[in-house]
Specification:
With 355 residues, this protein is α/β, with parallel strands linked by helices. Helix content is 30%, strand content 16%.
Amino acid sequence: MTTAFEPIVLGGRRLVNRVVMAPMTRSRAYGPGAEPTELMATYYAQRAGAGLIVTEGIQPSPVGQGYPDTPGLHTAGQVRAWRTVTDAVHREGGVIFAQLMHTGRIGHPKLLPDGLVPVGPSAVAAKGQVYTHEGPQDFVTPKELSEAEIRQTVDDFADAARGAVEAGFDGVEIHGANGYLIHQFLASGSNRRTDAWGGDTEGRIRFAVEVVTAVAEAIGGHRVGLRISPGNPFNDMSEDDPGEVYPALLDRLAGLELAYLHLMEGPDRGLTTALRRAWPGTFVLNPFTHPDVTGPDELKLLEDGIADMVAYGALFLANPDLPRRLAAGGPFNTPDPATFYGGDHRGYTDYPALD
């Protein structure tokens, strides 16, 4: 029986436990350079007891930004600034992957430089709003990416992955979930294309396959993870056939020998087990626990063989030393729902250590 506190080898690197700090948007990269700050270095170093830290979403290009004050990995200054974060985590013995997140149609021109507008696989606007420094704004109709722009976006992901390695990251996680660009290509509701990048299952998985392949070729598949969220309606997503699309996607990626697959689970545990069986490598699960947060009971997923690693989000915000508390059976600070997303929440830097 596998437990959370046994080591695991991930991409050739030995991790001290099977507890993952899930990616969570923090919006702390203040200033025009979208560079990480000292506060971010402190925040991640405090949580270095995780077997694996996955950072907040990092845009691989200027047009990939969908929220205010999120960090990038597309300039030399950003690469240098991220080195401060990775060095801090490594000094504490941690392992950290950079999550590369292009938000696609989720965003607003007010968040983008030089007259850029959000882009997507098709000119289909999402319903809803995004916060900007000027207040909430309705999502706009995105610019449909041309063939050349799609190719450039694939290259942007690969370049950002190279920058991540230069910045000292142990690897990258490609964000293919939660209604952002890669998910938008996968989903029938947002991808209305009739060319080779849309239409049938093979067309809709093509962008994801090419991004993951390009990143694996750039830095080695053992340094690359992929996050997916089949059927997740977040950000106005609709998918007619996740039970067909995602097994096909995993089949195309299986030969790349990636570090892991990270599933953000929906309410269908049956799909989870099917994807678990289909994936030949390490399977990281962010389990469906709505309306509760993921807690100590979810460690049983490892014992039952449903996952190889379990990802924790909100509980890691409130408990920087979460793996130690999980091993001891508590106590746990209660997360404040008001601080789940974004903001400069300095209160979270001073939670009491475990007695």
